[in-house]
Structures are given as structure tokens and as C-alpha cells.
Inverse folding.
């Protein structure tokens, strides 16, 4: 049974506001615009596709805006060891309005604002889910990867994992928080860096990095950022970053390591790697402070992190991976945004322009975060 906004029967015990809400009308079409591909690396088609119907545990979201993540590029290329669904509608930073829901959904009402995240759904009954590691569930369903995502005007999501967005929120600006924001916020928590200590953001001016800088500042951390290219230093400093390292200006990695350790009086206490460079990731194990933590977030295909065993042991450093956050991390990350403490640097383009955004990502020319408007 599908419950949608078109219901008009009277339900006992509803207050007048709830009743009027059910009486309002959304028109749910059968055909919508979306971007779909049928083979990895194949053409990205902006075309008419069917509107999905929510299952009993799902909500149907009229997606207004969707952020574009580097993971979307990997899904399209199919260069990760995790099999991708084909054909596929990508996207996992979708923000919009709930226009229909399945019969078992109790935590969302029609008209609520909702976010579609990378983790579309999980079993909620395994050991990992019970411990709050829902994203590590063996049965996880992933938006824009194993489940058609938010690069369409209407998309479905498991109501348990869908993000609750406060009323009145700017949906374009909150969209990147649903993945990039939650991911870096979780990574900063995993780094175990205390207020007043140094954290390094490697890839500081990109979509994830620009948010990581802000979350770090809100958490009372001193921030050193690493990136390279036009406008990146200016963006980093405008977000409150303290020390910027342009990696393109160093002749050798050793010189850069020395500069970072000197600027932070011994090296950062934690490093958040959101870059997709093998060399940058491995270098972070060299400049991190003794007893510090290197957190791996970016996922370059077929990559490894290298750390000299002698130095690793003597410095007692910790290298750990951090995946996307759980429901609590999501709620907390959105709360920072809702209180005006986080502002995603975004550029809005039409959904039809998505192939151009992929080209910019491939060439490393992204500054901040691109967000697609599904209405065009």
C-alpha cells in the first residue's frame, strides 16, 4: 500500500494542522528527468525515465538539489572492487520533499524535508548495525551505486536511513552536507584530536576538504590545509584555515614534510586524507606527529598507503580508515549546518550539465562543491 499526498480521507485524532497537511496536493508524475548510464564509462544520458515507487519501508523524495561527489565518478567508471548496479542513476547527496511513503513508514510525514545519503538502507539487525556501524553492514544498500540515486527528480530511500532536514532549510546548500559533511565530520571524530591541537586536511579546498576545514574550526582545532591550484589558498583562508601548504611549490616531498612539521611545531596531531593522491596519502604518515592519527577517507582506485615500519613503530602512529557516518553522525553534522556554523561553498548547475561536472572532477578542477538543480 502506498500512502501519498493525494489521500483525502479523514483520519481520527488528527489535529487541524495535520488534517490540512493531508488535504494539500502534490502531483506525482509517472515520468521524470534523470541522468542514467547503461555501462561503466559509457554515455551519461539526460532523459525521461520512470518515477520509482516506494516499497513499504521507503519514502519517495522529490529531489530538488543533489551534490556531486567524487564517488559518483567512481560509480560511473566502475573502477572500485565493489560491483555497481547497471543501468544506474547516480547521486547520493539529494535534498528534497517527501511526497509519498510506504505503509510501514512512521518517522516521516508527507511534506517533510528529507535527505538521500550514500547509505540508503541497512539490515539494522546484524552485529555491526546494532553497534552503530550501519554503513559497514554486509547488506548495505548504497544510493547512486547499488540503488538508483539522486540524479533524478524523484528517488526512493529507506525511511530509517534517510536524513531528517529541518523545515526552512536551504536545500541547495544542505545537499553537500548529506555525504561530504557527514563523512568529514565522522573522520574528525575518528582522529581523536583535542581542541587546540593541529589537524591537517589533505585536499583542503575540494568538496570534502572545504567542509572539513569548517567542522575542524567549530571543534576548536587548529587547521593546516594542503592543496594546489588557482584560488585554493584563498578559499581555504576564507573558511578559517590557519596555515596553507601549496604542494606544487615544493621541489621534494622531504621539503614539504619539514615545512609542515615546522609550522605545527612537530607535526599535526591528526591528518584527514580526503585527497585522491597515493603520494599525498603515504606522505601523511611521514609528517604526522608522534602518537598522532592518520585518517583515510578519499578512495582512489587501486591504491595503497605506504608507511615505513620502523618509523611507524617508533613514532607509534595510528593509521585508520573512516567510512561514512551513521544516523547520529548525520543528525549532528546537519545540526552544525542548521546553526549557521557550516557553509558549503557551492556552484549550482542544471542536472543536464552533469557530464561537464564529471569532466572537471577528472581533471582536478573542482573548487568547493557542485550541486545540480534537478529542474533543469
Amino acid at each position: 500500500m502506498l500512502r501519498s499526498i493525494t489521500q483525502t480521507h479523514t483520519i481520527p485524532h488528527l489535529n487541524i494542522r495535520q488534517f490540512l497537511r493531508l488535504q494539500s496536493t502534490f502531483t506525482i508524475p509517472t515520468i521524470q528527468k534523470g541522468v542514467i548510464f547503461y555501462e561503466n564509462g559509457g554515455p551519461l544520458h539526460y532523459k525521461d525515465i520512470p518515477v520509482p515507487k516506494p516499497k513499504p519501508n521507503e519514502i519517495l523524495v522529490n529531489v530538488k538539489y543533489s551534490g556531486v561527489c567524487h564517488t559518483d565518478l567512481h560509480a560511473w567508471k566502475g573502477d572500485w572492487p565493489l560491483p555497481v548496479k547497471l543501468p544506474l542513476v547516480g547521486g547520493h547527496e539529494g535534498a528534497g520533499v517527501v511526497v509519498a511513503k510506504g505503509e510501514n513508514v512512521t518517522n516521516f510525514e508527507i511534506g517533510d524535508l528529507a535527505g538521500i545519503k550514500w547509505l540508503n538502507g541497512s539490515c539494522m539487525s546484524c552485529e555491526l548495525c546494532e553497534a552503530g556501524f550501519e554503513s559497514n553492514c554486509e547488506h548495505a544498500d548504497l544510493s547512486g551505486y547499488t540503488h538508483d540515486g539522486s540524479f533524478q527528480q524523484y528517488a526512493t530511500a529507506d525511511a530509517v536511513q534517510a536524513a531528517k532536514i529541518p523545515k526552512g532549510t536551504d536545500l541547495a546548500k544542505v545537499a553537500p552536507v548529506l555525504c561530504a559533511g557527514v563523512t568529514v565530520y565522522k573522520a574528525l571524530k575518528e582522529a581523536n584530536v583535542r581542541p587546540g591541537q593541529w589537524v591537517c586536511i589533505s585536499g583542503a579546498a575540494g568538496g570534502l576538504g572545504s567542509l572539513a576545514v569548517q567542522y575542524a574550526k567549530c571543534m576548536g582545532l587548529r587547521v593546516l590545509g594542503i592543496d594546489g591550484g588557482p584560488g585554493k589558498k584563498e578559499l581555504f583562508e576564507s573558511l578559517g584555515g590557519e596555515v596553507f601548504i601549496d604542494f606544487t611549490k615544493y621541489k621534494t616531498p622531504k621539503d614539504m614534510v619539514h615545512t609542515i612539521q615546522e609550522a605545527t611545531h612537530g607535526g599535526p596531531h591528526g591528518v584527514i586524507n580526503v585527497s585522491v593522491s597515493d603520494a599525498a596519502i603515504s606522505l601523511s604518515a611521514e609528517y604526522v606527529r608522534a602518537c598522532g592519527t592518520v585518517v583515510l577517507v578519499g578512495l582512489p582506485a587501486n591504491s595503497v598507503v605506504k608507511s615505513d615500519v620502523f618509523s611507524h613503530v617508533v613514532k607509534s602512529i595510528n593509521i585508520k580508515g573512516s567510512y561514512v557516518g551513521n544516523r547520529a553522525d548525520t543528525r549532528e553534522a546537519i545540526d552544525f549546518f542548521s546553526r549557521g556554523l557550516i557553509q558549503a561553498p557551492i556552484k549550482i548547475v542544471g542536472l543536464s550539465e552533469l557530464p561537464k561536472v564529471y569532466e572537471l572532477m577528472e581533471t582536478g578542477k573542482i573548487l568547493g562543491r557542485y550541486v545540480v538543480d534537478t529542474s533543469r
